From TrEMBL, chains A, B, C, D, E, F:
This is CbbQ/NirQ/NorQ/GpvN family protein. The lineage of its organism: Bacteria, Pseudomonadati, Pseudomonadota, Gammaproteobacteria, Oceanospirillales. GO terms for molecular function: ATP binding; ATP hydrolysis activity. Residues 185-268 form the CbbQ/NirQ/NorQ C-terminal domain. Belongs to the CbbQ/NirQ/NorQ/GpvN family. Pfam families: AAA_5, CbbQ_C. Residues 38-172 form the ATPase dynein-related AAA domain. PANTHER family: DENITRIFICATION REGULATORY PROTEIN NIRQ, MOXR FAMILY PROTEIN. It comes from Billgrantia pellis. Keywords: ATP-binding, Nucleotide-binding.
Amino acid sequence: MSHIATASAQAFKQELPYYEPVGNECALFEQAYRQRLPLLLKGPTGCGKTRFVSHMAAKLGRPLFTVSCHDDLTAADLTGRYLLQGGETRWVDGPLTRAVREGGICYLDEVVEARKDVTVVLHPLTDDRRLLPLERTGELLEAPDDFMLVVSYNPGYQHILKSLKPSTRQRFVAMSFDFPPPRVECEIVARESGLAFERCAALVNLAASLRAMKGQDLEEGVSTRLLVYCATLINAGMPILDAACATLVEPLSDDQDVQQGLMEAIKATFG
Amino acid sequence: MSHIATASAQAFKQELPYYEPVGNECALFEQAYRQRLPLLLKGPTGCGKTRFVSHMAAKLGRPLFTVSCHDDLTAADLTGRYLLQGGETRWVDGPLTRAVREGGICYLDEVVEARKDVTVVLHPLTDDRRLLPLERTGELLEAPDDFMLVVSYNPGYQHILKSLKPSTRQRFVAMSFDFPPPRVECEIVARESGLAFERCAALVNLAASLRAMKGQDLEEGVSTRLLVYCATLINAGMPILDAACATLVEPLSDDQDVQQGLMEAIKATFG
Amino acid sequence: MSHIATASAQAFKQELPYYEPVGNECALFEQAYRQRLPLLLKGPTGCGKTRFVSHMAAKLGRPLFTVSCHDDLTAADLTGRYLLQGGETRWVDGPLTRAVREGGICYLDEVVEARKDVTVVLHPLTDDRRLLPLERTGELLEAPDDFMLVVSYNPGYQHILKSLKPSTRQRFVAMSFDFPPPRVECEIVARESGLAFERCAALVNLAASLRAMKGQDLEEGVSTRLLVYCATLINAGMPILDAACATLVEPLSDDQDVQQGLMEAIKATFG
Amino acid sequence: MSHIATASAQAFKQELPYYEPVGNECALFEQAYRQRLPLLLKGPTGCGKTRFVSHMAAKLGRPLFTVSCHDDLTAADLTGRYLLQGGETRWVDGPLTRAVREGGICYLDEVVEARKDVTVVLHPLTDDRRLLPLERTGELLEAPDDFMLVVSYNPGYQHILKSLKPSTRQRFVAMSFDFPPPRVECEIVARESGLAFERCAALVNLAASLRAMKGQDLEEGVSTRLLVYCATLINAGMPILDAACATLVEPLSDDQDVQQGLMEAIKATFG
Amino acid sequence: MSHIATASAQAFKQELPYYEPVGNECALFEQAYRQRLPLLLKGPTGCGKTRFVSHMAAKLGRPLFTVSCHDDLTAADLTGRYLLQGGETRWVDGPLTRAVREGGICYLDEVVEARKDVTVVLHPLTDDRRLLPLERTGELLEAPDDFMLVVSYNPGYQHILKSLKPSTRQRFVAMSFDFPPPRVECEIVARESGLAFERCAALVNLAASLRAMKGQDLEEGVSTRLLVYCATLINAGMPILDAACATLVEPLSDDQDVQQGLMEAIKATFG
Amino acid sequence: MSHIATASAQAFKQELPYYEPVGNECALFEQAYRQRLPLLLKGPTGCGKTRFVSHMAAKLGRPLFTVSCHDDLTAADLTGRYLLQGGETRWVDGPLTRAVREGGICYLDEVVEARKDVTVVLHPLTDDRRLLPLERTGELLEAPDDFMLVVSYNPGYQHILKSLKPSTRQRFVAMSFDFPPPRVECEIVARESGLAFERCAALVNLAASLRAMKGQDLEEGVSTRLLVYCATLINAGMPILDAACATLVEPLSDDQDVQQGLMEAIKATFG
């Protein structure tokens, strides 16, 4: 079946994913990699953290292992498990173990969502020992120089039960992300959607006014991803207001008053 | 046994299910499908979301895999499991995996009910990678162009513990559904129940006044489905008030005062 | 062993269980069956819902599969499981699957007690598709015309965590049950206990006054079942007050004041 | 090993356990057994419910299967399980199933402590069908005439989460137990401990004054069992105050003031 | 490997562990053993309960099986389990079962911490039947005369969810423990640590003043065990204040003010 | 694969890890080891507890087994498990069991995070018996003289559900840790990062002022580890303010005001 690929193949085959730097983030990522320090990315939904990590992985020529963390993710989901096959148990490495064995970048997206036993694997990997103990197999892996651990979370909607303990946080070099500045965001949207740059510029301007509404009625501002969706539908011939409603209004809120406020801002731009 | 069919056979064998469009929903669904964007449907109980998805799946010629989500639904319920059979473990694809492999539409009804680990499969499938990692088998499936993910929920009775995180919501093109306008609803009820159009019109008028009671005493307004039930029983010869009581009153509330209010509205129309 | 019978044998062998209709309930049940609509019964403890379903199943000549729902009942308890036997796993149908395969009536008593994943099997069975997907076996069963789903609950002691979601409720034709009118209840008690009709009449009169105490001090009024118990013990020669204490007082309350109130009402009738 | 016996052997070998009737409890138990009605016993800790059931089981010549219920007791603990032995799964009947198959008395002590799925086995066994469905084996057992179900609980310390639902309670004939009257209790204590009747009488008098303190500072009054313990230690030569402290004070309370109050009452009798 | 021993070997090989009686505790323990009554010990942390039980077990010549109870300890942890070994399941007795089979003393330390299903094994073992039913193996063990059950808990820090139900408590002969009187505690500390008696006397005096601070700022007073630790370090040559800080201050509290208060009391004695 | 090493090999191969003593901690650790007493370390995140234990293990020539405790860590994670391999179950020792068998130091970092059943293994190991019972294998291991148990926790962010019970705490000799005094911390940072001593001195001065902000807005003060990270990046050529922002600001707080306060303190030193 042609659409099957292995996880590491995925990482190598990709050409350098497009990423437009905003500040010193590329230098900091590269230095952290060179000094074998783990990295923590903070920032809102859809501002480009995942894309940035893909870009850096390709630039550094390392395979990338991405894991979207969630309430039920355990250490075993990261390190691996014995599976029963043909009457025989066989150990299957998880994505973190593969990254350590093969020397790649393991990216744990929204790490605060994961269950607490992931600390058992993060702590020895993030001090000077850089070790990954696999109790089940009895192995103790030393991370090679080209292994790097990257984690991220969104400080905007953490709550008490979901936060990194200081004893875990203080093991990472950290940086904050935000939405890209307008010119950069225009280039991203134009490139991803195929819509003309000037038309994208109008969308990016609109995004700024929609993002200003955050905190009052909106949990999160509109993401770059949604701008790309909107531009894609417009480029496919959908009327602008229809496309904007389906991508910049409905995904952000269920509240009719908020939706109306968003729609008015859109009509003020495109109406 | 003649009443056994496989899941994908189901999808193909059905002729185009009847669906009466109300706005631009068919165009938006089709564009989302063509642009490979995931879709989020919002709307009240029984307003026709499931029917709409069936209709579009048949129109686009794609098999449909529907999953009613619930409190205990996990990622493994969607992706698949190893089952022990004859002393041998065999991998059995879940409905989402089948939709990805076969190029079909996977519809997760009331997705907010599902457990949080479904995000681990939704996130990589809903960004530009369109990947479904199967950690258990070691496969990484790339979704073909004719795969589409559709999810739905009812904004009317979400609560704090049951909502989509912004980081998930902002991955979807979205649209709102409501009950169809009277003429369309009449046609639906007449067609499904076999009752004459004019008698259905009276039922639809009644529905409007019953729906107006929502929020005060009723959690949800009467659904199109219940109107079809009512018309079906009337068409089978049941007295109108008996049929209305069993389909438009008893299923909506256990409260005697509310039931009496509903019954009076019914008698005012049919008494 | 002579007292072992299979579940379906049970359903067929029984002669028509005695049931005394009160209103249009038999007609409504039969029409719902004929129109292939699922049915929801609401009513207090011990008012005869289970007996009514047994009666209708026998009358319609269909096997009956009854399940008492509880806090830990899951979808798999209804649909079936793989069991390991002799080193080989074998699929064993649950009661719902058997009802679908064999064309019978499946009755889920106190359905609100069940766990939430039962909705995954109820939803596709209760819309126009009438499907039962068995993910574990890969089967998708179409319910035959002679399959019917009946569920019940007691609106008297639902609480917030235990109620049917509107999206589930609105899939059912529904009716309310209450205790039978005095003459009918007398006939039931006389027939079941063997006690003379006139002596049963006194018990039924007493029941009316005991039921009037509900809500003040009693969670539930005395059931028809307990009247039958009482009449049975009296018919076996037990003194009336002893029998009434053991069946109409002690099972209803642990509170001494309430017990005394009940006992006084009994003595006023029989003392 | 000589001290191993099978569960049913236990029931048969025992001679009639000593039990001193107080009211009509023996007649009521016997009638419930003869009429095939399930029985509910209510009463405080250590007042003789378990002994009473043993006595009646022996008198009726039926094996007795006693289960102490607790927070984690499930239906499977009562009905049975498949156990893997020698690579082969073998079904092992639980105590309730054995009682149904062999025609015995199953006694569920403190039934309110059990998990809620026990209702799934209690309900069909306690209506006129008297059935025990074993879903795992596919059997449906009809209880023979000499099967009886007895359950008990202590109304003194039920709480909201631990109570029988009315739909379960109203399936039982019920009776209340209390501590035996003084003369009877003396006989019991003398017989069990070997201590002379007159010395037991003093202990029973003391018990009455200790029980009067219940509710103020004591959760439960002193049980007949503890009186037997006390008499046993006195009969073995222990000083009365030491024996009373170890059996009538320390087991009842950890509070020093309460202990002192109890001790003073004891010294007033024996000091 | 020379430091491996079996559990029962442990019990027999030990010479009589040193224990200094304070009151009638040895006589009461022995009488409970002779009369086949279960025993409940109450008392603060580290006051010598475990040592007392070891002493009595050795004196009575019975093997001792000690279990430290905790939140997740279940009945199966006490009775035993089937373990899969070499493709074959084999039953492995738990410590309670071993004590019953071999005729020994089973000591459940801090029994209130255990899960509630332990009552299922405690109840039949603690009434006149003295039975241990092993449902999994189908055995019903009768405890031999030389079996004894001892349980303990600390009344000082019980809370609502963690207490013995009266129906369980009232099955035990009970006694309270406290720290030993000064002369006895001196002898214990001197014997265990090797430090001269007079230097131990100073420590025991100090302990009295530290224990007086309990309840105000300290959850628990200093235990005899910690006095032994302190004397051991002093005897090994550590400066007194260093030893006292590490054993009598740091283990008791994290609060700086409390620590300072303790340290001042220490300096007042030794400074 | 060259970067695989076994757990015990790890412990032996390492040369003496650098550790700069502050007070009597080395003497106390060594005496506790010699006297076979378990040790409890208390102190804030990143102050060097783990490094200290590594240092002492190497100095005493004992293998070190470190376990980062977490919410889901159970006794079995420490003692071992049966694993199914090749159709055969094989016992695999956990890190605690290995330490006992091989005579090493087992270090449970943040022990209060572990589940409560770890007390079942800690208690018998921390009294004079020094035993490790392995119920699953039936072994009872006596700890050899060169086994030592060390545990730690951070008193700064314990909460009610996460604390050591007094009955556990009072089994340990204990000591408090804090950040090292400036000169020592400078040496550590210089040695670990390669940055010149004088430049490190400025960082350590800065740390003192940042730590003074703790309690007001910061959960934890900056750790020595983060100072090392900062010095490492500066030494690699990164601008000082960029390095400080990524290591001394972003890892400590997500709050913009707090970040600004930290940044101002940094600029005051280096700006």
